[in-house]
Each structure stands twice: as structure tokens, then as C-alpha cells.
Amino acid sequence: MAWNTAATGPGRGTDDHQGEAMSDTGMQDGTFVWNELASRDLPAARAFFTGLLGWTYTETDMQEMGRYTMIRQGGREIGGMMQMDGAAWGDLPSHWMSYVAVPDVDAKAGMVEALGGRICVPPTDIPGVGRFTVIQDPSGATLSLITFTAAPPQG
Questions:
Q1: Higher-confidence residue: 146 or 21?
Q2: Single pTM value for the model
Q3: Strand order in 95-101's β-sheet?
């Protein structure tokens, strides 16, 4: 996962603000900042979205997390894709995930159960990016929260 945290939002094609704290970039608590596809058949998904939407892609190495596909449209990064390999994915189908910026992912995760939600993935570091958690609201809808703590990796 990689994000450009420029004040105007992620993936705007500028490196002017990369690596600044969320409060320094104009990102607000509760702002949607990234969309990501986890796919059982990444080559098929890439071909589909290229044909449908004209997306192009670049690859980045996320070290122990493996290869990550950056989605590009109009010269800017607009999201990401990853192959769902390994037992960690269980029987989950291919799916899209949205990320919302928060100033302290651990504090927000601590609030989830008291508000009737569930933690699906506990707060976890993303090397070179920050920390994220995956939560479910009381209705079962899933969302990721992210706190940017470092300069995003460059693809």
C-alpha cells in the first residue's frame, strides 16, 4: 500500500507534501484517502479495469508484504491492487477496501467495540507508510482506518 499524502488528497501526482504528518497536509480526520482491490486473479482484474476504465499500473515492492500494484489514471495514483495469495485470506472473495485517515489508528480501534463494531485486523504497521486497522460497523460493513506516520514508499 502506498499513498501520496498531498494536501489536495492522495495520488495527485505531486511529491510536495509526501511524508508530512496528516495534520500538516490538510487531511482531515474521517477523510476517505485510498481504495484498494484485493483480487483472487490480479491479471484478470488488471485487464478488466484497463479495458473498462483505461487504468494503467505500476508495480512497487513492499518488502515482506510482497508486490503491490499502483492504479494510475491521468498521470496520478488513484488506488492499489494486490493478489490474494496464501492462507491468511481464507475463503474471502475478491473485494474492494476503502481507507479513511485518522490521526491515531490505535485510539480509534480502541473505540470500535464500545460503539458496537468489531476489529477484523488489529492495528498493524505498513512499513514506510503508517498504521492501519480493518473494522466492521454494527451492520457488518467493513472499512480500513489509516494513520500516516512516514513518507510513503515510492513506486
A1: 146
A2: 0.76
A3: 56-61, 67-73, 76-83, 31-39, 95-101, 142-148, 130-136, 118-126
